[in-house]
């Protein structure tokens, strides 16, 4: 599998942006920044890099994008079975791969792949429209004002999660994969291989165990990342505080996110 270094150019993305266009125009513009869907790993790396570039462009505003860069980076672990079906260029014959009988249900893996792609499609364009400018905010408000899906964002751009598409996809995962996915879920803000800083690392089940010792009960008997309540408890109680700790060392934060921004090959 070939690998190339790819660094997003948001200045160029803004220069060629469809100002005055429709939501469809903006989504198409965001999609044009990525390689084709079958290039699963290259595309995942580019999504991570674009989120990282957003954060580096406006660290004080785009904190969600900083966390999303690491989240997308960690998604690569869940996508590893598709690597077995990639050719020398990194492209995966998705229909053929999904049609094979394998011990691990690749339809679940593909759900994760599509979710990562759909989240990007759902919200990255919003950041491009806004881009930290008053004129961008006005254009964003005009675009979403009459759209049923995006209307909840409105002027409260900070409430991006209102437009996300995660839960319906998670609900479609098999029970076996949901448990495995939950067991392996972690959030770390370190990208130098497997060596991670303990102060900014958290695992979903590690957090859930601590919650259980404090008497917390879970919706499905066991904690599942696919449960909105369990996932939000982890994000609010562990992921966000660790990202805040990570950001407290500004030099380290910019260095680590910078690594992701230039790792989208």
Structure characterization notes:
Mean pLDDT is 81; it is low at 158-163. Helix 3 packs antiparallel against helix 13 (250-261) and helix 7 (106-130) crosses helix 8 (134-144). The radius of gyration is 19 Å and the shape is globular. The protein has helices spanning 10-15, 23-31, 40-57, 63-78, 80-83, 94-99, 106-130, 134-144, 166-171, 175-184, 204-213, 228-247, 250-261, and strands spanning 186-188, 201-203. It has one domain (10-261). It is mainly α and 265 residues long.
Q: Compute the average pLDDT.
A: 81
Largest sheet: 2 strands, antiparallel
List the strand order in the largest sheet.
1-2
Q: How many separate domains make up the residues?
A: 1
User: Can you tell me the residue ranges where pLDDT is under 50 for at least 5 consecutive residues?
Assistant: 158-163
Q: Which value, in Å, is the CA radius of gyration? A: 19 Å
Write a short abstract of this structure:
The protein is mostly helical. The protein has one domain (10-261). The protein is 58% helix and 2% strand.
Q: What's the SSE blueprint?
A:
Blueprint: H1 10-15, H2 23-31, H3 40-57, H4 63-78, H5 80-83, H6 94-99, H7 106-130, H8 134-144, H9 166-171, H10 175-184, E1 186-188, E2 201-203, H11 204-213, H12 228-247, H13 250-261
Antiparallel strand pairs: 1-2
């Amino acid at each position: 599998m070939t690998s190339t270094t790819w660094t997003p150019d948001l200045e160029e993305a803004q220069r060629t942006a469809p100002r005055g266009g429709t939501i469809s125009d903006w989504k198409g513009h965001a999609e044009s920044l990525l390689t084709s869907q079958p290039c699963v790993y290259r595309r995942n790396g580019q999504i991570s890099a674009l989120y990282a570039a957003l954060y580096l462009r406006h660290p004080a505003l785009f904190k969600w994008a900083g966390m999303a860069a690491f989240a997308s980076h960690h998604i690569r672990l869940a996508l590893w079975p598709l690597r077995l079906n990639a050719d020398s260029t990194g492209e995966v014959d998705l229909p053929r791969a999904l049609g094979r009988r394998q011990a691990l249900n690749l339809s679940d893996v593909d759900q994760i792949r599509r979710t990562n792609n759909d989240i990007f499609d759902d919200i990255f364009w919003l950041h491009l429209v806004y881009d930290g400018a008053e004129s961008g905010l006005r254009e964003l408000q005009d675009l979403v004002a009459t759209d049923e899906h995006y209307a909840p964002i409105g002027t409260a751009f900070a409430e991006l999660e209102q437009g996300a598409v995660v839960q319906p996809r998670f609900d479609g995962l098999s029970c076996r994969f949901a448990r495995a996915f939950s067991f392996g879920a972690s959030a770390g803000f370190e990208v130098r291989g497997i060596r991670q800083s303990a102060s900014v690392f958290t695992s979903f089940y590690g957090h859930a165990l601590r919650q259980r010792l404090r008497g917390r009960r879970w919706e499905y008997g066991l904690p599942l990342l696919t449960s909105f309540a369990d996932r939000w408890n982890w994000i609010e109680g562990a992921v966000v505080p660790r990202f805040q700790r990570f950001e407290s060392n500004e030099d380290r934060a910019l260095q680590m996110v910078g690594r992701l921004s230039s790792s989208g090959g």
